[in-house]
Amino acid sequence: MDATIANSYFNTTRSSGAQREQYEHQAKSQEEVIYEYFASRPGMEYSPSQVREYLNLTGAPITSVRRAITNLTNASLLTKTDRQTAGPYGRPEYLWTLKRNDEAQGDLFHA
After folding, report:
1. Scanning 73, 96, 109, 110, which has its CA 20 to 30 A from the CA of 18?
2. Residue 100 — very low, low, confident or very high, per pLDDT cuts 50/70/90?
3. Domains in the chain: boundaries
């Protein structure tokens, strides 16, 4: 992963010391795993629930997967599409894809 993500973990529970470091490491690792999944499948689109299922992250809350995808999107590594799919409870979920190089270059000139 080339881009730097400033905050992988948001300390809403005011954890400190070793516990906070562990949470930060887990969040960063989750982002790396999710990014590698998208990077190995360029052009494919996935919802957060699909990513959670396909990567067998069933022990991770869906909100953590969504946080990781949002962080990767904010780091210009993923792109949120305008397409949706039915989520596990029949509710629509947006799909994300790996950001193409020409999209990333375009962002440099339109920022």
Report:
1. 73
2. confident
3. 17-110
